[in-house]
Amino acid sequence: MLENLQLWYQHGWIRAIDLSFAQQLAKQLEDDQEAVVLLAAFVSYQLGRGHPCLDLAQLYAEPEQTLGLPPEHASVESLQACELPQQLLCNVAGAESLESAVQVLLESPAVNNDNSPLVLQGQRLYLRRYFRYEQQIKTDLAARMKALQPVNLGQLKHVLDELFGTQQTISWQRTACAMAMRSLFTIVTGGPGTGKTYTVVRLLATLQKLRGQPEPLRIRLAAPTGKAAARMSESIGNELLTLTSIDDVKADIPTEAVTLHRLLGTLPNSRSFRHHKDNPLHTDVVIIDEASMVDIEMMAAVVNALPPRARLILLGDKDQLASVEAGAILGQLCEQAEHGHYTPELTEWLNATTNVALPTDKTDASGAEWPYLQHTTMFHESRRFDPNKGIGKLADEVNRQQHVWLEQWLQDSDAMAAAHVEFDNIRMRAVPRPNHQSVQQLVEQGYAPLLKLIETRPESRNAEEIDVWAAKILKQLEQFQILTAVREGEWGMHQFNQRISYWLFGDQAAEHGWFEGRPVMVTHNDYSLDLRNGDIGIVLRREPNEPLRVAFPTTDGTIRWLLPSRLTQVDTAFAMTIHKSQGSEFSHTVMVLPEHDVPILTKELLYTGITRAKQQFTMVCAHPQLVLKAVRRRIQRSGGLANG
Ligand SMILES: Nc1ncnc2c1ncn2[C@@H]1O[C@H](COP(=O)(O)OP(=O)(O)OP(=O)(O)O)[C@@H](O)[C@H]1O
């Protein structure tokens, strides 16, 4: 079995850490524990793929699909050399079936003992650390949900009338504000442009107006990445400007959002933070935007640092891909949110805050079985996109896994788009090869304004003017973006970056890794440089004869200039993976699919890619029918947050 894992590692199927974890464990255990060692390797491997635990029921129902093995880039040679997961499970004593595996695990000294490396909870197998994170989050959220707050319903109704006007139809935005007054934990979920920011500003105004204390509530805004924090600051600032009915509390609503790392205070060379249980944050309310990107370790750190009396409010789109690191927190907490599942008691309470009763189909006599949903509001109506056409319609059809309309779109061509207004800002480009002339044209047109802007470098040596120029260029990067589904291969992120660098900059791009105009994405957190995984910069020259530097935006609007030699872990970012694009939006988003179907192609991946587009969306692929296959496939979220 270990030899097989060794082969998997040699062929790039699993990580070195997965193999060495299995080897270490094998050394500590008796020979009859092979099944435990194999399953432990799977737990570690799943962690690397974003799952905080191994769901044994899923594993035994669909081993290959659950593990995503063989991987998308598996060579013919590796397919010949390596056994498939199903074969391996069958060949290891005790691992043949779900029942035998659970039995062996329960009897093993490596499982469910004091400080044992593994924990089995029902049919989910965890590394102990991740089990602890999950328990910590569950316990904390349960306490915050239980802490029902005294609310004067008459006053609340009055404030909500002031903020939302008197309604004729149900306003879920108003419902979300009311719900947030009720306890110390709230989730607001919805797709792009459904009014989460609009609502949160009103929610904060409501909290401040009804605070019941002379001094303002201390509110902190945070997001998982620098980019998401910058967007949060900008959109909350803009929304506040338009709101006149809250002049009395406007000054008490902050507009500056920080990254979660900054909120908690990073410590050099440590996974721990400055703020924790014994040194909690000085705050009454924490709002986290883009919560779908928060991983389990970070969420555990947040709840650990949050004072017990503080409110936690999560905003995000539950239907998006989960965080790159382990833990689909938001997706687990809001599963089924579209159906409401509100208890009759909650429905009655919410109805008392408005003149318009909740639709009866959102109430569920068994709602108590959905504890998190009693604190969740889901928005469906996009204020930015027309749900009947273009990006709005495409995103919705994909999200709901509907085929009929999609099939029509897939036959698309420019003629089709011209004839159907429904397809006006979405294009399908079926191309035989990724280096096809039409792709090159698309890219050259998309990046032409960026190249032009780079040529307008100020003649003066005035640092401020140069920073303004760099800021404009960085902003321009949000206009056009290629997103790929996969990293490797002809249709993958790496090769697209090489191709685009060559199309735009010719041989100099191939000869010099660093060249002016190269956008880069940081691929690992670098605490010493205060750079985060996902941060984007661009290579520029402040003066014609100066060395190249990489310009990064900062949250206060200034530019940081770093020498390329200081950046060890970056990728070119003309093309980025859909995973890495989370939390960003681009005016024109181009999504590239691989040539063949791979397990990573899911409806969540497509939905996330499509919803990055603000004005124009183009899909590039060899076989449009692949879209239908991807739409049928859903990500299996592993984790025990929602259940016992
Ligand atoms: N009830 C409403 N009445 C009028 N305008 C609204 C309402 N709700 C939202 N809007 C407007 O719709 C636009 C999109 O809303 P908002 O930015 O709050 O959405 P969002 O869910 O935060 O989007 P994203 O996830 O993309 O940041 C904004 O211009 C906002 O002012």
TrEMBL record:
Domain UvrD-like helicase C-terminal, chain residue ranges per copy: 573-619
User: Which reactions is this enzyme annotated as catalysing?
Assistant: ATP + H2O = ADP + phosphate + H(+)
Any one of the GO CC terms: exodeoxyribonuclease V complex
Domain RecBCD enzyme subunit RecD N-terminal: from-to ranges:
10-126
Q: Name one GO molecular function term.
A: 5'-3' DNA helicase activity
The family database entries (Gene3D superfamilies) matched by this protein are listed as: P-loop containing nucleotide triphosphate hydrolases, RecBCD complex, subunit RecD, N-terminal domain
In this chain, ATP is annotated as bound at G190, G191, P192, G193, T194, G195, K196, T197
Checking Pfam families in the record gives: AAA_19, RecD_N, UvrD_C_2
Which InterPro entries does the record associate with it?
Coronavir_polyprotein_1ab, P-loop_NTPase, RecD, RecD_N, RecD_N_sf, UvrD-like_helicase_C
What keywords sit in the KW lines?
Answer: ATP-binding, DNA damage, DNA repair, DNA-binding, Exonuclease, Helicase, Hydrolase, Isomerase, Nuclease, Nucleotide-binding
E.C. numbers: 5.6.2.3
Name its GO BP terms in alphabetical order: double-strand break repair via homologous recombination
Q: How does it assemble?
A: Heterotrimer of RecB, RecC and RecD. All subunits contribute to DNA-binding.
Question: Miscellaneous notes for this chain?
Answer: In the RecBCD complex, RecB has a slow 3'-5' helicase, an exonuclease activity and loads RecA onto ssDNA, RecD has a fast 5'-3' helicase activity, while RecC stimulates the ATPase and processivity of the RecB helicase and contributes to recognition of the Chi site.
Q: What does this protein do?
A: A helicase/nuclease that prepares dsDNA breaks (DSB) for recombinational DNA repair. Binds to DSBs and unwinds DNA via a highly rapid and processive ATP-dependent bidirectional helicase activity. Unwinds dsDNA until it encounters a Chi (crossover hotspot instigator) sequence from the 3' direction. Cuts ssDNA a few nucleotides 3' to the Chi site. The properties and activities of the enzyme are changed at Chi. The Chi-altered holoenzyme produces a long 3'-ssDNA overhang and facilitates RecA-binding to the ssDNA for homologous DNA recombination and repair.
- Please give the family membership noted in the entry: Belongs to the RecD family.
What protein does this entry describe?
Answer: RecBCD enzyme subunit RecD
Q: What is the lineage of its organism?
A: Bacteria, Pseudomonadati, Pseudomonadota, Gammaproteobacteria, Alteromonadales
What is the gene called?
A: recD
